[in-house]
Amino acid sequence: MHACVILICHDLRRELIIITIDIINQLLSPFQSGADQQEPITGNALMTFSMNRRGLLLGAGAMGGAAVLGLSGQPLYAATPQSGGTLRLGIGSFDSGETLDPQVNETKFMQNLQWQLRNNLIEIGAGGVLIPELATSWEPNDDLTVWTFKLRQGVEFHNGKTMDADDVVFSINLHRGPDTISQTKSLVAVMKDVQATAPDEVTITLNGPNAGFPPVLALTTMVIVPKDDMNFDAGIGTGGYILETYEPGIKSVVRKNPNYWKSDRAHFDAIETLAIRDVNARTTALQTGQIDVMNSVDPTTANLMAIMPGIDLVQTRGKVHYCFSMYTTDPLFQDVRVRKAMKLAIDRQDMVDKILNGYGSIANDQPISDAYRFHNPDLPQHSYDPDEARALLQEAGAEGLTTTLHASNTPFTGAVEAAQLFAEHAAAAGITINVAREPEDGYWSNIWGKKPFFASRWSGRANEDLMLTLAYSKEALGGYNATNWDNDAFNAALIAARSEKDEAKRRELYYECQRILSEEGGMIAPVWADFLDAKASKVGVPEEISGDWDLDGNRCGERWWFNA
């Protein structure tokens, strides 16, 4: 080899990164053979190569699947998963004050850990498919008000207790009632009654019809724990791994459950999950072999990671949207014209290009992407129009609006830079946005939903009802409805959609929900962002992975393996 690669990794976003052209030609050589032989790449062609490679990575990425490609351009998954080894997982989203209480699972660290230790009644697979987990089947009555779940028999908790219907009822009821601290209490509020109708059967009666109810039971908060055992930090569950140590904000270590009921899952001997906030530190740890997998790759360096020997970029197209949220009851944002002006004051394509580095697409201020069944493709697209934004502010008596946008890189990598870019865009409309960079630790508990204007991210949910209800409905006020938005027409259409058996009519209702939210809601969602994770090439993955969260739906610990 006649050339060298110099990577100054302590600040990949700002320091010089030099990759000599002949090295890139060597890396590309597997692509260039026979009739497809091309001229050596030149400096001017580097960007073309990056975008072509992104096209390869997207391959099977539509609708929540992912293509994971190596330098040969071939999928990096094995036909038969292998067992053994310790997976070292670097996670950038965590909180030093979090616990294993199922009621409060705010971060990616905790979601990964919970699903290492515990199971749900239902699992979300690739493409949003519902997979029976601790429930083997479920069905409603004729009017969609009563759902009956048959439970898997012979499943043991880590403490040796056999799981039964009483454990399921206890676990669900943790999220119900006036004393619950559950983040999903607004979703379980639709339950009127939860009963163990047999040792292997649970019947849930709802307050009203709900065709999309089952995915509620697939949420991270809805993991199943032993009845009457409030010592949640012991980590007792039915999952593929048993808790050995957990240090909040630092790391966790789990060991393989020898009695796991899933014979085709939980392939590692152990998993060490490490809390590594800084994306550059995670990247360096992966490059130097200190970890095997990392979440949330920096989009601005993703093209470089994609050509690094021994490292694979895992790109998944799904439902995640980056956003800036306005508290709609704050005097500054009460007027819908002001909110509309803010949506017109952001250059979405510039965000895609500079913040996502092309790893995503333009969004339209509502959360239902084309990865959902009832995505509305007919909404007028909000485009950058500072003149119209200025006119709307004049009409609302808010010309020369000044506000503070609170951000950190906790909600998404590059959130601070995105906020600063938004401020540049908005200045053309006479809007002054002062960006306040907040501490990373405690962002979800101290900033998100607490400040009038803040950076946020949503990773989507299993279906339209879950996403819209959890974040924007009247039912979610005081919970995940961080914009405090309460719209009668939206709420009515959402409730009607739940009870509508006719698919065409239900589609129309969800279309209407998206229209109202896009025009009147308090969320500015400029982009859909692809999930970008990375792994050592020795880590094997399934042919298709989930796009509901990053890292294969935050279940990589159970679904991935080391290649032989």
Automatic annotation (TrEMBL):
Q: Could you tell me which Pfam families the record lists for this protein?
A: SBP_bac_5
Query: Which molecular function term from Gene Ontology is one that the record holds?
Result: peptide transmembrane transporter activity
| One GO term (biological process) | peptide transport
Transmembrane regions:
56-77
Q: Which GO terms describe its cellular component?
A: ATP-binding cassette (ABC) transporter complex; outer membrane-bounded periplasmic space
| Major localisation | periplasm
Q: Where is the Solute-binding protein family domain?
A: 130-466
Family statement drawn from the similarity comment of this UniProt entry? Belongs to the bacterial solute-binding protein 5 family.
Protein's UniProt name: ABC transporter substrate-binding protein
Q: Which organism is it from?
A: Palleronia sediminis
